[in-house]
Amino acid sequence: MTIIDIFKEIFSTLPPSNVLWTLSLLVISILTRLAITPFGKGWLGERFVAFLLKIYLPKKIYRVFHNVTLPTEDGTTQIDHIVISPFGVFCIETKNMTGWIFGSERQATWTQQIYRSRTNFQNPLRQNYKHTETLRTQLDLPKESVHSVVVFVGNSTFKTIMPANVGSTKICLSYIRSKNVPLFNSFEVDRMFEAIQLGRLEPTRATHRLHVSNLNHKRTLATKHTYSDNPYCPKCRATMVNRTTQKGPNSGEEFWGCPNFPECRGNRSIT
Question: Reduced to 3 states, what is the DSSP secondary structure of residue 186?
């Protein structure tokens, strides 16, 4: 007997008036348990943002994708939401977090504080940088037409000044709508829509598992190439990695380079 058969047998014994009530409690229980897991929090946050994009962005103007996985040279990259419009393309990263949030545009890591507990996490603007660049390359668009947007859902409060493209759902929806100068005609918008449809990997569990596997592989490589005695980047304070100059008069020489290259170009000489 499958789990579905078990539920069918249980519900068949209940009065009709109690079936809906029991189903409601079951759904609430599942969502409550899901919400306390990292995957569940992320999933619920993305679904909430997807709902708001559907409600507040007119379908005749804005075309929206959710959970888009694109192939890259070193694996895959996963974008929470993509909005295509005549006014530009918006690449949206969703964060479902609580507490106080500290950070700035140039910092490699931001901080979440809940009471006395502090947790560092990657600067979501840096995280979204690869998303926007992958999307821009696939669509063959100029850099100024692709916008990075970071949406925070949940009971979080920013304790430092954030850029205009980072904030609550209300702030980020306002940011998207603030771009009102036409850059593309209807044919170009259709072309971009079709390019994403054809270029994305099928949104299945297998695709998600492939993406997670790629992420774990990258983390393993990063761990192997990062050492405790490596210096910090003078610009963003990330732990630097050993690199070798490929071109020019100094070709073959080793130096300390920022792991966030090309967004951050901090470097130090090896003495």
Answer: helix
At 49 the pLDDT is 94
Among 105, 96, 55, 92, residue whose Cα is nearest residue 176: 92
Q: Identify whether the C-beta of residue 80 lies closer than 8 Å to the C-beta of residue 104.
A: no
Please answer whether residues 113 and 123 qualify as being in contact, where contact means their C-beta atoms are separated by less than 8 angstroms: no
The answer to whether 32 and 40 have CB atoms below 8 angstroms apart is no
Provide the domain limits for residue 248: 224-269
What number of other Cβ atoms are within 10 A of residue 78's Cβ? 19
Whether 48 and 162 share a structural domain: yes
> pLDDT tens, 114-161?
998 999 999 999 989 999 999 999 999 999 999 999 999 988 999 999
Specify whether 194 is located in the same domain as 254: no
Q: How many CA atoms lie within 13 A of 226 on its CB side?
A: 14
Residues 105, 119 contacting (CB under 8 angstroms): no
Cα angle, residue 109 at apex, residues 255 and 146 outer, rounded to 5°? 90
152-182 confidence digits (pLDDT tens): 998 899 999 999 999 999 999 999 999 999 9
What separation in angstroms does the CA of 40 have from each of 43, 46, 51, 113?
A: 5, 10, 16, 20
Do 171 and 62 fall within a single domain? yes
Kindly state the tokens that stand for 270. Answer: 């090896």
Cα distance from N-terminal residue to C-terminal residue, the chain: 69
Among 78, 79, 73, which residue's Cα sits nearest to residue 92? 79
Q: Quick one: DSSP state of residue 144? A: G
